[in-house]
Amino acid sequence: MRPSGRKTDQMRAVSFERNVSKHAEGSCLVKFGDTHVLCTASLEDKTPPWLRNSGKGWVTAEYGMLPRATGERMKREAASGKQSGRTQEIQRLIGRSLRAVVDLGALGERQISIDCDVIQADGGTRTAAITGAWIALHDCLKWMEARSMVKVEKVLKDHIAAVSCGIFANQPVIDLDYLEDSAAETDANFVMTGAGGIVEIQGTAEGKPFSQDEFLTLLGLARNGIDELVSMQKTAIG
Amino acid sequence: MRPSGRKTDQMRAVSFERNVSKHAEGSCLVKFGDTHVLCTASLEDKTPPWLRNSGKGWVTAEYGMLPRATGERMKREAASGKQSGRTQEIQRLIGRSLRAVVDLGALGERQISIDCDVIQADGGTRTAAITGAWIALHDCLKWMEARSMVKVEKVLKDHIAAVSCGIFANQPVIDLDYLEDSAAETDANFVMTGAGGIVEIQGTAEGKPFSQDEFLTLLGLARNGIDELVSMQKTAIG
Amino acid sequence: MRPSGRKTDQMRAVSFERNVSKHAEGSCLVKFGDTHVLCTASLEDKTPPWLRNSGKGWVTAEYGMLPRATGERMKREAASGKQSGRTQEIQRLIGRSLRAVVDLGALGERQISIDCDVIQADGGTRTAAITGAWIALHDCLKWMEARSMVKVEKVLKDHIAAVSCGIFANQPVIDLDYLEDSAAETDANFVMTGAGGIVEIQGTAEGKPFSQDEFLTLLGLARNGIDELVSMQKTAIG
Amino acid sequence: MRPSGRKTDQMRAVSFERNVSKHAEGSCLVKFGDTHVLCTASLEDKTPPWLRNSGKGWVTAEYGMLPRATGERMKREAASGKQSGRTQEIQRLIGRSLRAVVDLGALGERQISIDCDVIQADGGTRTAAITGAWIALHDCLKWMEARSMVKVEKVLKDHIAAVSCGIFANQPVIDLDYLEDSAAETDANFVMTGAGGIVEIQGTAEGKPFSQDEFLTLLGLARNGIDELVSMQKTAIG
Amino acid sequence: MRPSGRKTDQMRAVSFERNVSKHAEGSCLVKFGDTHVLCTASLEDKTPPWLRNSGKGWVTAEYGMLPRATGERMKREAASGKQSGRTQEIQRLIGRSLRAVVDLGALGERQISIDCDVIQADGGTRTAAITGAWIALHDCLKWMEARSMVKVEKVLKDHIAAVSCGIFANQPVIDLDYLEDSAAETDANFVMTGAGGIVEIQGTAEGKPFSQDEFLTLLGLARNGIDELVSMQKTAIG
Amino acid sequence: MRPSGRKTDQMRAVSFERNVSKHAEGSCLVKFGDTHVLCTASLEDKTPPWLRNSGKGWVTAEYGMLPRATGERMKREAASGKQSGRTQEIQRLIGRSLRAVVDLGALGERQISIDCDVIQADGGTRTAAITGAWIALHDCLKWMEARSMVKVEKVLKDHIAAVSCGIFANQPVIDLDYLEDSAAETDANFVMTGAGGIVEIQGTAEGKPFSQDEFLTLLGLARNGIDELVSMQKTAIG
């Protein structure tokens, strides 16, 4: 039924490879099937201007795709001189999602920048990015803890993971790949904490509008998927 | 309880003033309380490059705020040389929402550009913009119908309206004004059709994560509010 | 003779609507016939870098047009990434004109930014903008006076108003609308004070060069028109 | 009285050096005292898009200053990524002034671009640029005439020259140098044809407003100066 | 002597991983020690404008670094809105180097874009990029050959590889890593063909000028290193 | 043999005109035949941010071409909104070359900016620029010495001059003009000190790769040419 042969509630093979960067304080190569995102966490010893002398720090994110991460080569954003609306939308989402589980006061007047660069894309890059970014952020905080800068459990209050769900061929399915994503009638992204709290919901009717019941089915699929992702994050950092 | 004294399920005073532009094919000044958005619809007799020779047209939207629409003057985007991520996110949302009820084939190879310019802001500019943009779009299609270019009912399949809901002071409330919006724990925007179909859902935890039940309460509030907005649209164009 | 049926020395209906913005310290919606410009004055409690520690303040202006203020939709400057030469020329003119009647020392180390946004255009947007901007500036200073920050009569030395004149169909006429403006052989903008002093003159031959006598006729027309505008300003703030 | 010791109606030493560029179809290094502007005319065998198939050509101008043309080094506009408002204002003025004496139909569907680059600045760069640009334009047309493309006298209907006048130390003076320009109360630029027709007038009160009589005195000074400049142009091309 | 303990004529461990991209027509992850560059080749079925109807194709390259490829996070070029001079210099070099061994006529009217993205940097990113880009280009041509579009040996006339050499601690050494690069007195990059022809030489004195003899020593080191790299390329594609 | 009739080892007529700018602390109009570059040195009493409190100063360079310096008019970089990769490459080269002979500590916390603007181009603009820039830099230091700010011989350790060599029609030749440059098989730029030390070598095969012997022949030609240029610099400042 699904192009990949997956069951409707079956996510792609997910993996986290930690410490993939020689330089970054935390890093993770996350794979959701053929979607590969390199997430690095960079610690800077200053907070943004609007937080100076507030005692608080900041966590921010940037997102990019390599030009040939996709089936057709896209124009390099650095060459075209600006980031697309889509890019900005995604990096704002990643930053917001991470900050939902961070105690910025416990972080202190520092900034952690998470770069999520899509090495290869096959649908669901933003949800993979959020899920992997959490690992990179965690490892950056571990690095800081090793230097007595913070206590990880004070700063990082919970897990964050994300998954997309959608209605494809009249079936609610989880973790859409590119083939599904480009044909889905409805596409929704869910970001939740380890405790099951909802942090972000973004649902869009691509074709005909969707009903509340359909939406609740997607939310249910997402909840199970995110539970699974959080378990895998726990194993990865265990 | 609410700064404005409104009840939790009470929207602000909403009004639509049509034909406010001497030049535009359709126009509407929409007010949600102190949030005032001028929506104009401009017909262009060509479709974007990627639709040429497809027989299909396009509906797109641009969004802007006058620099002193807000409590503190913001930098003029034309002067700073780029549109913010927030601006791009909103104009993409408006365009998507309108296209959800437009039959692009019935429109023919033409483009309608909806400009939503916030004259004065007091929270909820994007939802007011979508709701008013539908009127401007409708009136543009009427203008075209009067010239035998299209049949309105063939192109415009349904109403579209939008409203924000959120959790303010632990209470689910509808149609947040700026004071509520800046203090809300959860903020969600809903876009629905006249038939009650959901077109867009965007929910964000600003503070602590929200639960499924809280979200369903917000969705219920939104459904009632959007029903009301659609009635008012019907009266306005009646 | 004139497309509008006006006499050669007859301006369009002019009106000033004050306090149109909930947020701005001063605001005015000025109408010269179908040309409508929203002028807001924003007080900032710092002066530009080059005036720091000089004891002097600054008055500056920005100008913009909504994309569909005109007969054909224009590209949004924020989207195209820069302000046109015409926009910059006009906003420099507005700022210079206002500063000609302001005692920057009496203002103190503050900046007042006047935003002139053309809601609807039908010729003469820059002269309407200057004339309305003076009201917004005046009201901002009144706001400051009410808070004991300045004395209005110390800062604002005189009125400023502006009008265009031109040679249309071989006739010198005042306050050209778009139809006249686009067909005029000569087009001139005059900015004068309440006392009749000249602050700016900009005359351009669009077709054949003009003579000194023709120019003096235009100047005479402008003088009368500006006297009238200043009277109307006095009534408006009275 | 004047810093340079000149009489009030005395222009600086003016010279035109033709054919200073190996490549350009027409070129002129114009000097008004220490203000030196290199003007080149470049013929392109196509007209701008909006004139295609109109049978008409176009004359346009661009203006720039070398970074150290001035007393203090200015930021290079190419490096800062945009042309200032002042630059755009001046290049629009130069283009308009030249087009006032050109029969665009007689030019045919071609474009002549005049580049005016200020090698050294000492006040009055725009008026020197216009006066020198006319020579470059003339020589470009001569080059075309030699190739039987146009008849110079059909295309170029008259001379164009420009000079600044101002009120310095309460005295009306002509052709202000930098010292005078930066201290003048009133500053006006005049562009006229060989026949004495006025093409552009730009007068600005830098300090207190000026009167009609003062303005007429400046206009009289300008008229004499421009007569002189036109004579010198005639000698130069003679 | 060298921070890495390598001998003066010893390159770092070099490896080529082919087919690392699901989408690109050719791809290679090249590693020179801790310098890792992902090279993808993208075939487009059109040639740049200046080659249209010439029968010739084009090979071009773009270069980028992930923000945290380096010891300190660098600003993302897409966010800062332009590519640095260094980036442009390097991508021009890569493109030129590859074109030196390509018969553009045999390629036909197509363009191959090579993207070289530095995943991790430790000195020598441009030389690694050139060496890996050749593999990606080769594999793209193989892909085309499999579709009967070209003959590889007609298009690709030879190998291209590159290495840096420099004088570090008064010793000529090959393949400088970051520690050496930042302390080297002289730094030179060499690009050569499989047949030993020189395609590019770039030598720069960072501290004191260098002599012809020193330069010839570096050239000798480079020649041996490039011979080795070409052998490794042959093995990789063998 | 050569289009200009020059011998293979014969440079074009070279001249240096000093003090060509009324404003700059040092200036030189350098001519290599029909290539004319205006070099100005501007002293600023502050060092770049990264050198603050280091006791060191900085020498930097910017490069530009007037739009009609070339056979066909090029787009003005200030109008197109960015400097090309070629421009940035050249100005980085000029700055690096000059700094190779400057003791930045002896300069003190000041910056000297060298602007090299090509008034007319006929090949070899970068080498002419470097050679002339040295004169402008020298004269700026002399200006400073006259004000007891520095000792020239402490800051400026040696001469710097540059020349291009290439293989044209199978012959190694020096100082290529445009006709030769655009047809050369190999093109190399050499920057050397008065003492004969090499500061920069940039060699590029435009057509077929070159051999080490060919390269050494070019280097020999360059050495003689640069000796000559240094002698001429000595005469010029003598």
From TrEMBL, chains A, B, C, D, E, F:
Q: Name one GO molecular function term.
A: tRNA binding
Q: Which PROSITE patterns match?
A: RIBONUCLEASE_PH
Q: What is its EC number?
A: 2.7.7.56
Does the keyword section mention tRNA-binding? Answer: yes
Homology family: Belongs to the RNase PH family.
Q: How does it assemble?
A: Homohexameric ring arranged as a trimer of dimers.
Which PANTHER family has this protein been placed in? EXOSOME COMPLEX COMPONENT (PTHR11953), EXOSOME COMPLEX COMPONENT RRP41 (PTHR11953:SF0)
Name the record gives this protein? Ribonuclease PH
